[in-house]
């Protein structure tokens, strides 16, 4: 079961009229073509708000030349095989970002993906409810009702969402993707619901870096909860008050 919260109707009606007006001038979504349907969780095992899935990235262990997490994500979700007229249109659920302190010159390399906010701006602006947050904190896109308006892409302060411009092939059954849809990091929800680690976390550990920890932020006995409690961690754009599910240590 997914935690679809009913949006504010007045706001939805307003945004819906805006989307309709835009559609009168241009085609926003030329059609959604999906390979199968990915079930987020078995119907007899609903997700619960008692759990808050999250990630903690230790930037001191993340090397600027390492792309293990990016490569694993691309392989897991079948990304990077698209044929685009521009490379800037290629989808990446995770991208590596290099930060440099303007005073000290200190540099940090860190992966940036959907931050799985507690109050996600992408969900607030979506006119159809396609962008939604599960009860366990994972933010997703329902491709079946995404109209490709891209309001969520404009609202996301992390530039974590991409738009599928062209028809796709060689898709993964657990990650249905479609032309005309918006997509982003799913925190490997198909793995999480099976009790497994996200692909990026698994690859980072296999590479020997162990820079990314995944777990339940609400479970005081979990490694991630203990680390967040013991060591200082940061949110990207903490000033926005979004209470992100992805935290960074060492920034």
Can you walk through the features of this model?
The chain is an alpha+beta fold. The chain has seven helices and nine strands; from the N terminus they run H-E-H-E-E-H-E-E-H-E-E-H-H-E-H-E. A three-stranded mixed β-sheet has the order 8-1-9. A hairpin with a 6-residue loop joins strand 2 and strand 3. Helix 2 packs across helix 6 (199-206). The protein starts with 8 loop residues before the first helix and ends with a strand.
What's a concise summary of this model?
The protein has 251 residues and is of the alpha+beta class. The chain has helices at residues 9-25, 68-77, 121-125, 151-155, 189-192, 199-206, 223-230, and strands spanning 53-58, 95-100, 107-112, 131-133, 139-141, 162-163, 182-183, 212-216, 246-249.
């Amino acid at each position: 079961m997914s935690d679809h919260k009913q949006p504010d109707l007045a706001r939805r009606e307003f945004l819906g009229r805006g989307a309709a007006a835009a559609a009168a001038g241009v085609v926003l979504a030329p059609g959604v073509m999906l390979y199968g349907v990915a079930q987020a969780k078995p119907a007899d095992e609903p997700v619960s708000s008692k759990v808050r899935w999250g990630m903690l990235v230790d930037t001191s262990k993340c090397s600027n030349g390492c792309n293990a997490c990016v490569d694993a994500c691309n392989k897991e979700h079948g990304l990077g095989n698209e044929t685009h007229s521009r490379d800037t249109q290629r989808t990446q659920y995770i991208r590596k970002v290099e930060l440099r302190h303007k005073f000290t010159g200190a540099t940090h390399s860190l992966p940036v993906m959907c931050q799985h906010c507690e109050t996600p701006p992408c969900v607030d602006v979506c006119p159809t409810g396609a962008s939604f947050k599960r009860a366990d904190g994972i933010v997703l896109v329902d491709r079946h009702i995404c109209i490709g308006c891209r309001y969520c892409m404009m609202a996301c302060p992390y530039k974590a969402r991409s738009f599928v411009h062209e028809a796709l092939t060689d898709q993964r059954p657990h990650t249905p993707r479609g032309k005309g849809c918006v997509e982003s990091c799913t925190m490997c929800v198909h793995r999480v619901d099976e009790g497994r680690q996200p692909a990026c976390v698994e690859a980072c550990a296999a590479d020997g870096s162990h820079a990314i920890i995944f777990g339940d932020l609400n479970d005081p006995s979990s490694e991630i909860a203990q680390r967040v409690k013991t060591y200082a961690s940061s949110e990207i754009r903490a000033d926005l008050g979004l209470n992100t599910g992805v935290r960074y240590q060492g920034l």
